[in-house]
Amino acid sequence: MSFETNYWSEIYAGRLIDGTFNASKHADYIKSIFALSEFPIRKIIDIGFGKGKILEQEAKKLHPDHIIALDTSKLMVETLKKKTWIGKYNIAIAHTKFEEFNTDYLEKYPLDLAIANSVFQYIEDVDFSLKKLASIARFSYFSVPTKNDYLRMENELNFKDKYAASRTKTFYLEILNKYFTRVSFNVLESKIVREHSYFTAELYRG
What we know:
By secondary structure, the protein is an alpha/beta fold. It has helices spanning 5-12, 23-36, 53-62, 74-81, 104-108, 126-136, 147-157, 169-179, and strands at 43-47, 66-71, 91-95, 111-117, 137-143, 180-184, 187-190.
């Protein structure tokens, strides 16, 4: 689907959207949990960066050596390119779908962290894309609304997202469990990129 003017005006207008108003808190959490686990984040990719709020905060708080930023919206890509803060970082910005993004190099030299915050509800082939995600990064900061989440948001906030696929928790978990281990809130460890685990507490590995 095309994420151009209508999507951004309909979904974001007059609403506090996760990953925008609280982007700094997301970045603080990511920085803290990986610092606690003593895993350095030097190379990151943001898949579907949208407004770019989390991306900006991650750049400022983690100071990564390399950043890749992908989005399907030409509007958001061009908007990001005009931001003054990107000049301080080694950042590659691409207007592309994640499904179509060439990851051959990254599969040979995986990144430390992939950010996919509320993106996979817009992706058609979830299995293919989650396997791809697990192939390019040691860890992923991942969130996706389930069918029950959307029902709750509709009842409590009168929020509907006509652009998103409404899928069950079971649907996502069956695929996630093939390619990832859940090691903390929103944090996934790849089962494909295998090295020493920095999250070893058995109680939280699921």
